[in-house]
Design goal:
Radius of gyration: 17 Å
Mean pLDDT: 90
Strand content: 25-35%
Number of strands: 6
Helix content: 25-40%
Number of helices: 5
Strand order of the largest sheet: 2-1-6-5-3-4
Structural class: alpha/beta
Order of helices and strands: EEEHEHEHHEH
Shape: elongated
Length: about 140
Amino acid sequence: MIVGQPVFLGAHVYDGLWQGGVKKVEASMLQGESFLLSAGVGSISGVRATALQGGVCIASERNFENHHAYLYDDIRNLLDVVFQNNLYGVVVTAKDWVKIEPLITLDQCEKFFVMRVRFEFLSDREYADFSAIVHRAL
């Protein structure tokens, strides 16, 4: 292994939206609906690309700094954008959801959609190598 070189190559793959973090929403139910995309990441471009891969229609974006500590005002501002622009809801990352969920009411919860992402290895060989490492560690 060379320091600074990738160990495994993979891709983040869209794995659906969960309303309020718990209820998977079928893609057909979201056709024609537009969303605010919000994320506390270094660059929202990767999050945007993953959402678009899943067919999410993004009408607006709000990028917070990486590891943002959400406040009640942030929630209110996100929902203001949703209501002022007649959007269906806010799409957030799972990383952000764990910080947002404790701050919202049950009524607000229905306007938040957590985008789940899975990791896919780019080759069967890398997956086999990774599996061998995990099995050795166990």
